[in-house]
Design goal:
Elements: H1 9-12, H2 25-34, E1 47-50, H3 56-63, E2 70-74, H4 77-89, E3 95-99, E4 111-116, H5 125-138, E5 139-152, H6 156-168, H7 175-192, H8 200-209, H9 215-222, E6 230-231, H10 232-241, E7 244-249, H11 261-270, H12 275-286, E8 291-298, E9 313-316, E10 319-323, E11 326-330, E12 336-337, H13 342-354, E13 359-360, H14 361-368, H15 371-383, E14 387-390, H16 408-417, E15 419-421, E16 427-429, H17 433-441, H18 448-459, H19 465-477
Parallel strand pairs: 1-2, 1-4, 2-3, 4-5, 5-6
Antiparallel strand pairs: 5-8, 7-8, 9-13, 9-14, 10-11, 11-12, 15-16
Helix pairs in contact: 7-8, 10-12, 11-12, 13-15, 17-18
The protein binds S-adenosylmethionine.
Length: 483
Amino acid sequence: MTEPGLEFAYDAVAYPTPIVPELNPARIRAACALQGFAAPAAAGASVLEIGCGDGYNLLGIAAASPGAPHVGFDLSAAAIARGRAVLRTSGLSNVELAQGDITVWRGGRTFDYILCHGVHSWVPPVVQEALLGLIAAHLAPGGVAYVSHDVLPAAAPKQAIKAFLRRAIPAGAEPHDAIAAARALLADLGARQLPHSRLRPQFDVLLRELPAFEDGYFFHDWLSDAYHPVSMTDLGEAAARHGLVAIADAGLADLFDDGNGAAADALAARLGGGHAARAYAADMLDGTRMFRRTVLARVDAPPPPAADLGELSFVLAAAPESQAGGTAYRGADNAFFRPATAMAWQVMARLAGLAPREVAYADLLAETGDASALNKVLAQICSVPVANAYASPAPYAGQPGERPRASPLVNAMLDAVEFAPTLRLNRLVSKQGATRMFLALCDGTRTRADLRRDMSAGLGRDVPASQIEAVLADLAGRQVFLG
Ligand SMILES: C[S@@+](CC[C@H](N)C(=O)[O-])C[C@H]1O[C@@H](n2cnc3c(N)ncnc32)[C@H](O)[C@@H]1O
């Protein structure tokens, strides 16, 4: 959907793809299990990503599930070309990347998982509607779709500020000039907000984050032609028009209960119940949540109820902090958790003691003994979030074997862009030539002694065996070795 004569914005300015760990089907299945649904098994699942950009996330997902089909498309020919360049050297044979438009794309098959991240709020309403139609037409019975989006009411100030930028910056300005003008305008507006301005909280956050935004990200998030956040109830109604229903939150935000849980339940009942109503009620009470990752299913064939949490594993996603009242945990994006019960304390201590290793649910249950209380603690820590949950056996080797083999995708991406998705879809950054040389040597043919010999030759100095072991252990914790 590009105006005739205008270059598509995502071709003109590259969007710097973030690696999004929540897109991992093993995490989506875990999130669904924590909310009572058995989404398809992640290993071997067929996956479609809509608006995949350069497809780096999809490549990471495919690397952890060899043999299963992974299809991605995006309107930007430039983004798809970047993805295909990496795909060619990645060793993956289970990925198709193609240029395509949401309004007309047809896949000719169904998929267990459909992913669409960072697209819904940034396309016109007609494309939002087509997106839901596309999901409905391609979702396998029992399958789930992940759609992320900005949410009202909290996104309303952003909407107003973005509308102002669009009017204040000349249409057709060169992206570079538009970005510079927008940054200056935002700084000025932010500095001049009156103390009780209702836009002030949004400006405060924006001005704090702005210096860290890459230009490409800023351009597409703040200067996009389209910006249409929806309330959860609007999304629920739109989904229903296509035979879809919101069933869960892949970010687990809906499980987070900061004291308003009972009130949200009561309001949701007045709104007719269901996940979308519950999330809408929570958003109205909370007033700060701007972004959600909603899981959709087919109304006529939702996933079955989850039997239990037995197959899940958990990993710490926070740093412990010693405080006067005991240990607290601080995760990304200001996530903060101070265990308030003996069991919460016990679970966090166990995860912290074994990090970065994943801990099986069965081990936590054996230690705590009370499934119902444990499940509540796990839902709480994953929703803050200070822990992550996965619902499949780790597709990486926690202890590399005699001849370590690094994921070829990791090597291909580090060569191309200096970052890579790990086999759990976390972001690995490596600008260091020595690490890259080491990973390239780990191709499954060399023993540790061979690695030591070839690293020593490459670096022109003797590398002790202990250093080889230390680097192997560190990289194993970063989920890059195949089993
Ligand atoms: C903010 S980017 C997100 C890209 C990627 N999903 C990610 O999270 O990194 C939005 C993407 O939607 C794509 N897009 C916009 N309109 C589209 C359409 N009509 N059909 C397919 N892709 C579209 C853009 O080309 C762009 O790659």
